[in-house]
Structure formats: structure tokens, C-alpha cells
Amino acid sequence: LSYEQAATLPCAGVTAWNALQEGACPLQKGAWVLVLGTGGVSILALQIAKAAGAKVVVTSSSDAKLDRARALGADAVVNYRDQPDWGRQVLKLTGAGANHVVEVGGQGTVNQSMTSLAVGGEIALIGVLSPQGDANLRQLMVKAGRLRGIFVGSSGMAKRLNAAVERHNILPVVDKVFALDEAKAAFDYHSSSDSFAKTVIAL
Fold this sequence. Notes:
Largest sheet: 6 strands, parallel
Shape: globular
Order of helices and strands: HHEHEHEHEHEHEHEHE
Structural class: alpha/beta
Number of strands: 8
Number of helices: 9
Mean pLDDT: 95
Radius of gyration: 16 Å
Distance between the termini: 16 Å
């Protein structure tokens, strides 16, 4: 990997790995994974899931970003702007629901994530990009599902991720690289709607 590619792994990569491989029921071949959005954690989760032989649904409000996700191996995509009830759409696409959900939205999206969940599935709660909303946990109870909070992970997880990256030749997606004196522009770009996967500042 380049330094820029490798720089995506310690935080976003370990978070995605933890979400999919380090819970009570690690990801199995043939399982369905739902990733919300096309940010750094979500795109690395897509790549990790595909390397493990899973099937992946990606959500976004941008058809162009969904096309990029398909090019990276996404089996199905949902534009949540066109499909406001996207949890039910994921159920329809997967047949029985997602076995793993990489939930980066938070309070505002977790109800839809629970709707999309398969019986016995797990939601890895990672982000709070959408902090407003009321979660109805009854759906989780009815589906015998699990909600697991994720905050990056351990050095052991990083080593296991690195081994998987090498074994499967996973190439992390770097959307744009900025020089150190362009740091403000880098943060502005990363926060914009144009951002996809990871933005890197090169030292």
C-alpha cells in the first residue's frame, strides 16, 4: 500500500473490521451486510465484507456515489432520497434482511436499520451523523437482534485487519489527497457532499 492508503486503516479500517468481524457472530460467507453511506468506514466495510464472501447493500442519496460503490463490488444499492422507507427496501433486496448493519447515522437512522435487520442480526452502532430521532427498540427485541456500540478497536484487531488486507489484496479507496498546507481545504472537502471514502493529508 501507499502511505496514503495505509493511513486509512488505523481508524476507519479498524472500526469497519471491528463492526464486521469482532462481535458475537463474526461475518460469514454469503451473509448480507448493509452499509450506510459512502464514507471512509462504510467503503472499507464494503471492501472487507466482499473479501469475506459476503453480499453488500449500500445506501446513499447520490446515484453517482452508488455507481462507484457498485464498481467496488456492492451487490445492491438504495438511494434513500428516492426510497425514504429504505429499511423495507433492504428487506426486499436481501430476502430476509441484513445479517450485519454498519450504522453510521445514529439516532436518525437506527429505526430504518432495525427494519432492515434479519432475525438474529447485529447492528454495529458507530456514528452520530444523524443525531435527531426517536429509536423504537421493540423491533430489535422482536428480531432477537443485537445492537453493539463500536469505537475503533484494539491493536489486536488492527493486526488481524492488516493480515486480511494483505491476504485479500484490499486496496483502500483514497478519494483525494491534499498537501499539509492545504489542510483547511482538506477538512472542507471531507465535510462536503462531494467526499467519497477517505480524504488524506500527505505529510
